[in-house]
Amino acid sequence: MTLFSNNHQQRWTIVQISDTHLMNQEDLEFVHMNPERSFHAVMHDIQQQYPQLDAIFHTGDLAQIPVAETYQRYLQFMQTLNTPHFQIPGNHDDAAVFPFHLQSNQVHAIELGNWSVILLNTAVKGRIDGWMDAAQLQQLDQLLQQHAQQQVIIACHHHPFDMQSHWIDQHKLKNTEALIDVLARHNNVKLVLCGHVHQDSLNEWQGIQFYSTPSTCVQFKPHSQHFALGPEAPGYRVLHLNADGSFSTQVHRVEHVTQQINFEISGY
Ligand SMILES: [Zn+2]
Ligand SMILES: [Zn+2]
């Protein structure tokens, strides 16, 4: 399904934000950080640095408190940006109230000229780890076939590959084999974007780049065997996509919003 189409350009700039963990009220804190304030600082930086954005993708854990008012506040803000924006659910979200486009388990493709972004839902109600059901895998296969002439980006919440961090790897996408079986049948997938791990990382499999992206809120300490927060600032990922199939990407950190985080916290 095509949600958005833009065929008049040679270069596209998109931004990935992730893991905003917004509360139901804007003045509440999550692990001693105000997620609303850090989200707005990140969005302010994005607007300053990239005033001509083609789309913004949110890769899940939009809400820490997944109730209607949290999502409405987010959507009201996003609608002021005049930039197409898309979001997929994370384990902390509630698909029943999440601002999805149509059904949450339907696989969507957003076309940006020579590029397409395919949105997956790896979140399963009542679970922290991720899973792609058979219907979604089949839809993905069909969409990759339909977009055979395009460069494809896949976005999902859970990390498909280990982060060398025991606690978070227990919560990864559990049927990565099934996903890469589908990817292996096509040669148009360039990259896979995920959130969930609250850190920047790159893995490569069969020429496909798998990126994770920092949270707009608290960061998890890389390579930690137990739950631990890191000192890095909130951030986001920007991607420049060229018509010839080449791309570049970088993570930006928004240093001035780093607050006094309680690093002694022991749960997620
Ligand atoms: Zn998260
Ligand atoms: Zn998550």
Automatic annotation (TrEMBL):
InterPro entries: Calcineurin-like_PHP, CNP_phosphodiesterase-III, Metallo-depent_PP-like. Residues 13-199 form the Calcineurin-like phosphoesterase domain. One of its GO terms (molecular function) is 3',5'-cyclic-AMP phosphodiesterase activity. It comes from Acinetobacter towneri. The keyword ATP-binding does not apply. It comes from the Bacteria. NCBIfam families: PRK11148.1. This is 3',5'-cyclic-AMP phosphodiesterase. Belongs to the cyclic nucleotide phosphodiesterase class-III family. Its EC number is 3.1.4.53. Keywords: Hydrolase, Iron, Metal-binding. Signal peptide: none annotated. Coiled coil: none annotated.
